[in-house]
Design goal:
- The structure is a homodimer.
- By secondary structure, chain A is α/β, with parallel strands linked by helices.
- Chain A has one domain: Rossmann fold.
- Helices cover about 25% and strands about 20% of the residues of chain A.
- Chain A has a seven-stranded mixed beta sheet with strand order 3-2-4-5-1-8-9. In chain A, strands 6-7-10-11 form a four-stranded mixed beta sheet.
- In chain A, strand 6, helix 7 and strand 7 form a beta-alpha-beta unit.
- Chain A starts with a strand and ends in a 10-residue tail after the last strand.
- In chain A, about 50% of the residues are buried.
- Chains A, B: GO terms for molecular function: serine-type peptidase activity.
- Chains A, B: Belongs to the peptidase S51 family.
Chain lengths: ~240, ~240
């Protein structure tokens, strides 16, 4: 009963917030007059109110009202009653900390498994995986656990970035980091490039957008998965 | 009684491991015939043995023998008896996890405060700060705490990278990440560019290398600190 979009990024270069994804969002939230936005990742430290306004403005054009989860006294109940759910990007450590400390991770998971349409972007996509351990973010807060929603049976690396072959910088490439993850963890990792998203319908997971995704599996060479292909190889 | 070098990176583009820093390392470890290498950060998942061999080979040219901390049954005692200490780079989460789980973080700190010469590079430099929370690494393991050595009264961001003004990538810049850190944490952050290092002599901390460092302080615009300048403004 799952119905979700997990997008690598909310915004493409030179575009407005969510604009490239609006046709898909309209389909995902078809029939919803209002959805709940989870603003806890607070990019750049903006307030929950400011961040919710941004989402509200973006979804106005497809006639969907947005309320922030922070506005509700009983947040678990709010999740249960939501017509649709959207978790925005920002800092994944902060998002995961806030969800765990408010005991909202499992209730959120349950609603998604029951079929409430879910949209994630960036950090909101990262938490769709088994753990947040393939995030690119800085550990600005110490969360009670790195476990996340697990609505897909692998980990996700949003904003996946190919190595810059001309770079003289000695910091690790994204691929090196994911390989380090695989020295200690066994789940596959999907490197989602900006402009790509995973479309989840019940048990089908399909890569959408124009780009391929890079799939990392323990003990194997990474492979490129073409757009509009199901992720059957790793699920 | 502190005597330490905290280097942004072990290796510069096109050079051998540690080669740019060897003259400084020779001065730091003057009088030491053997030092202990802490290989726990295991870059790319290499073994403790492989990583220690790399350090051993690099320090051979300045006639210093290297033993890996993993070789010792009583690691705390080994730290106490060491003539010099060197923590290599790799994954900071892994390094911090291993140090805390083996109850070695505080003993290591004590030895450095007592004056045992200490060299850190990358992750080994990051742990010189108050917490590891300005690392660039992926959280591939969940450490018991983010607290680190605190031999300098601020946090360090190694491999500091200036924003690429031509990039179309929407992942956060390093500066944005550090500003997010400052929405929740108050300690200053020193962004150390590759090729820079902090020289610590007792209570003096001096920026060395050819580049400036970027200093982030809560509520202020970041400033550039020139090379060969003391970090008096933030300590």
């Amino acid at each position: 009963m799952k119905n979700a979009i997990l997008a690598s990024t909310s915004t493409l270069h030179g575009q407005q917030y969510l604009s490239y994804l609006l046709p898909e969002i309209a389909k995902l939230f078809k029939g919803c007059s209002e959805i709940i936005f989870i603003p806890f990742a607070r990019p750049g430290g903006i307030t929950h109110e400011e961040y919710t306004s941004l989402a509200k403005k973006a979804l106005q054009s497809i006639s969907i009202n947005v309320k922030g989860l922070h506005e509700f006294e009983d947040k678990e109940q709010a999740l249960k009653e939501a017509q649709g759910l959207f978790t925005g990007g920002g800092n994944t450590f902060l998002l995961v900390d806030k969800l765990h400390r408010n005991n909202l991770m499992m209730p959120l998971r349950e609603q998604i498994l029951k079929g409430t349409p879910y949209l994630g972007s960036s950090a909101g996509t990262n938490i769709g995986g088994l753990t947040m351990q393939t995030t690119n973010d800085m550990p600005i807060i110490y969360p009670p656990s790195f476990k996340t929603l697990g609505i897909v049976p692998f980990n996700i690396n949003p904003h996946y970035l190919d190595p810059d072959l001309h770079s003289k910088h000695k910091g690790e490439t994204r691929e090196t980091r994911i390989k380090e993850f695989h020295t200690l963890n066994t789940q596959p990792v999907v490197g989602l490039r900006e402009g790509s998203w995973l479309e989840i319908k019940d048990n089908d997971i399909t890569l959408r957008g124009t780009l391929s995704a890079r799939i990392f599996t323990v003990g194997k060479e990474p492979i490129e998965l073409a757009s509009n292909t199901k992720l059957t190889s790793i699920i």
